[in-house]
Amino acid sequence: MQIGKLSNEVLREVIISGIDKKNEDIIVGPGVGEDCSVVEFGDEVCVLTTDPITAASNNAGTIGVHICCNDIASAGVRPLGILVTILAPPSAALEDIKRIMEEINEVCRELSVDVIGGHTEVTDAVNRIVLSITAIGKGKRDGFVTTGGAQDGDDIVVTGYAGLEGTAIIAKDYYDSLKDRLDGKLLLRAQNMLKSISVVKTGLLAADYGVHAMHDATEGGVLGAIWEMAEASRKGVYIYKEKLPVKDETIRICRELGLNPYRLISSGSMIIACSDGEGLCRFLGENGIDARVVGKFTDGKRIIATSQGEEEIAPPEADEIYRVKV
């Protein structure tokens, strides 16, 4: 099979279709594009998500905590704790596990999140360290946000920049191979972009402002995230490619490697559906968050307008990061 997440079609037909709901307390369950599950506890809800780290060789602990806490924040809920599973091959060194835990603890301190449990073992079932994290948050029953809440006419707001996480991973993991092809200072700037992959602040502010849906852009990039939000909401979209925010470092690295920056893993970017996108952008800007309106949700097809005309947005496939060859 192809490396990367299962396609949404396969996910729906093979995985989700066979899952039966058995408890009424589960108010948001598995679905294409949904970042979190939500369990009702009276006037409050428990929000949960889980993700492995497979695309990065370096900074796995840092990335793992951020992407799971980003998922919780995309529900408009503050993350409280994480459970950590580390599977290490026999060839791994204890220092490798120690480094991952140091990264995890550092990010948890930054986000005021607790490590509340997990599992660590050495196994020959893997050939490199696999890190998987489950994150938990708590919020009000009437205050959480889903991926599938977009409404006709909502503005599509994109925060951060396309391909941010993927750019940082490539610049770090392939630095030795790229330093003779791209400016070293550019690669170092790209590595530093890893410091900007949290959207916890963004998600909490947007929820307070009053938005209809949120989805953090991970594998499949910003275009994949927009498609998934539209799919979860059963809506069309009309977006403008020139309005999609992307940094020069990402453009230059992707051009060198023949990658599509808008399909590159993009933690650090939140896709938001809001009836007053310009107002939300001003509000987020006042709080130090880059945001812009890139289009609208519609009752039609999923269209992106480019300088060459209009084309339909394809469902996300394997992330561009898995195509890197240097």
From TrEMBL:
GO aspect biological process, one term: protein maturation
CDD domains: PurM-like1 (cd06061)
InterPro entries from the UniProt entry: HypE, PurM-like_C_dom, PurM-like_C_sf, PurM-like_N, PurM-like_N_sf
Segments forming domain PurM-like C-terminal: 151-305
Pfam families: AIRS, AIRS_C
Residue ranges occupied by any PurM-like N-terminal domain in the UniProt entry: 33-137
Top-rank lineage group of the source organism: Bacteria
Protein name (database record): Hydrogenase maturation factor
Coiled-coil intervals, chain numbering: none
Sequence similarity: Belongs to the HypE family.
